[in-house]
Amino acid sequence: MAEVVDNFDWDNVGANSFGGNYSAEERARMEEMYSDTLTTVQEEEVVRGVVVGITDRDVILNIGFKSDGLVPVSEFRDLPDLKPGDEVEVFIEEQENANGQLILSRKKAKIKQAWKAIYDALENDTILEGVVKRRTKGGLIMDLDGVEAFLPGSQIDVKPIRDFDIYVGRRMEVKVVKINAAFDNVVVSHKVLIEKDLEKQREAILNNLEKGQILEGVIKNMTNFGVFIDLGGVDGLLHITDISWGRIAHPSEVLQLDQKLNVVVLDFDEAKKRISLGLKQLTPHPWDSLPEDMGVGSKVKGRIVNVADYGAFMEIIPGVEGLIHVSEMSWSQHLRNPQDFIKQGDVVEAQILTLDREDRKMSLGIKQLSEDPWTRGDFAEKYAVGTKHNGLVRNLTNFGLFVELEEGVDGLVHVSDLSWTKKIKHPSEVVKVGDRLDVLVLELDVANRRLALGHKQLEENPWDTFQTVFTPGSVHRATITEKNDRGAVLELPYGIEGFAYPKSLQKEDGSQAENGESLDFRVVEFSKDDRRIVLSHTAVYNQSQEEESRASKFKKKTPTATAGGVATTSAADVKKATSQPAEKSTLGDLDALSALRDRMMGSEREAGEQKLQAQASKKAAPAAEEEGLVARVTKAASDAIDTVTHAAEDVVDRAKHLLDSDDDTNKEDKA
After folding, report:
1. Which parts of this chain are annotated as the region Disordered (predicted)?
2. Low-confidence ranges of the chain (pLDDT < 50)
């Protein structure tokens, strides 16, 4: 058991404890020395640390904090020679996690430093270096110390780049041209660095540039209208027309991309820095190599290089072309599309019509290689007046149509020579362009190359027959096809047309005949020379009233009483007949002659109608519509014949009755 000290000084215990012997000044100095050994850190800032150890998974770093921090080894792949004692920059994520561990990140430190460098580069116009990670649509993706930046394809080089893959993995110097902080997007350019280097070269070239100077260049771009050539810092345009003396459709026919070639300076604009180049000017002009014996009348062979609306261009040799006008392609007088004769790429033979070596112009002709049909020896005999031909309708006009009988031989068919029966206003009512048409030669003028043709002349003039059918006073069935203020056009049998005045269209009930109606019409006027028939429907029923009135007069002159079936005559009638025998005899004779004349005209009319029916039968087509038309025409003709026959029989009967009455009167007088 310990011995208890009775005289222990409890008041001095604190003074003799640990640190109790330090004065206030000494204590303050000691606290300051201790605080200097500790580092105060803030989260989300970059600090420098010393590697104190390396394990399989982590790198241990001392940043002067109360504890060391850990960083994954994977973040030090770019430092394969890392060892203890090396200093690196790290980013403080957390001062103390749940395990009391300091969390650091070298990757985030690099990104933060990279963004700082990017903003500084944009503000100070400095150059950054990065690695191309991969290609993307329209450009490349670069790694700028952990920050991805977009390098557009147009900003890679001063010349167009056709293969972006060749840049993947390369280190390139770029300049920052745009930053989108909201989306952390960075756009860089490598082209601006090249342009600065080329600007000095461009100025040197432009200062020494002269017209006619020959330069070496590389084709950097190719278009439909020409190629752009890099002359070593400055571009020039080689137009497609200055590539070759001959015609080419595209520069790729004779040139290739990245091809080196010599060109001559044709012109340049210092203000706009535009240079026009030429390639064909380095070779002699092909016109200078034409044979001396080549002249007007010479036959040449070449390739059609262009076809226009007015003609075609034929290339005899590259750079030497001649125009074949469309009028020189055929003897035909109707100009057609040159595509109907030749196509681009065809190889043809032609004759030189004109040749101007100074202006380098040449006109050619193809038709001159064949004989002019109008100068052939058998032409006048072949196309003599009255000969029949079949031709192709080439053109329609208001006054007629042109028919091509053979290549170079055309004739005119006047609109009045298309039909005997119809009044045709325009040839399109009968034919159309491209149809075949039978024609008859009416006139031939070889000196003036004129040929008059007719179509209706192939048939007999039906108006000679119409004159016997449509006699004045005859009645026919007709259909109104057109009606206006001046009158109506009527369709008569056999395809002939007639005309009726408005006053002649009034029907028996007082109404007017309308378009499309079929009625009986009486012929009022017939003119063969004018091919005109005037008809009237009103005259049909008015004429019937006159005939009824005339018939009633005839009845008054005949015996009215009979006895035992024998006709009796009163004394007054006998006396009247005896006192005027000559007048009755003369009137009977005239009526008999009239009846005989009507019979003769009826026979002639019947013969004419039969002739027209035979002609209509020959023209009848197998189509149902045309057969129906023939049937209607035949029926109309038959009705007309019946009407005329009945009228003639009635007149004959009346004449006989008058003659018999005169004979009976004479016999009674003699008795």
Report:
1. 542-567, 601-627
2. 1, 549, 553, 556-594, 596, 620-627, 629-630, 633, 665, 667-668, 670-671
**Helical spans, DSSP H, in 291-450:** 379-382
Q: What is the predicted pLDDT for the residue at 414?
A: 92
Residue 616, pLDDT score = 54
Task: Give the number of other CB atoms < 10 A from CB of residue 166.
Answer: 11
- Residues 222/240, Cβ–Cβ less than 8 Å: no
CA distance 475 to 472: 9
CB atoms < 10 A from the CB of 398, how many? 9
Would you list the DSSP string of 35-90? HHTS----TT-EEEEEEEEE-SSEEEEE-SSSS-EEEEGGGGTT-TT--TT-EEEE
Which residues, at least 6 apart from 622, have a Cβ–Cβ distance to it below 8 Å? Answer: none
- How many Cα atoms are found within 13 Å in the side-chain-facing hemisphere of 222? 15
What's this model's pTM, rounded to 2 decimal places? 0.38
How far is the C-alpha of 203 from the C-alpha of 220, rounded, in Å? 20
Strand partners, 453: 413, 441
What is the distance between the alpha carbons of residues 149 and 190, in angstroms, rounded to a whole number?
Answer: 12
Question: Under 8 Å CB-to-CB from 405, ≥6 apart: which residues?
Answer: 383, 389, 391, 411, 439, 451
Sign of the alpha-carbon dihedral angle for 462, 465, 470, 476: negative
Cα–Cα distance for residue pair 570/560, rounded to 1 Å: 10
Q: What whole-number distance in Å separates Cα of residue 486 and Cα of residue 157? A: 86
What lies within 8 Å, CB to CB, of 209 at 6+ separation is 265, 268, 275
Is-contact 41 93, C-beta < 8 A?
no
Helix (H, G, I), strand (E, B) or coil at 410: strand
Amino acid identity for residue 70 in this structure: L
Tell me the C-alpha to C-alpha distance, in Å, between residue 333 and each of 338, 372, 397, 431: 14, 12, 15, 20
* Residue 238 CB burial class (10 angstroms; 0-12, 13-18, ≥19): buried
* The 3-state secondary structure of 210-269, one letter per residue: CCCCEEEEEEEEECCCEEEEECCCCEEEEEHHHCCCCCCCCHHHCCCCCCEEEEEEEEEE
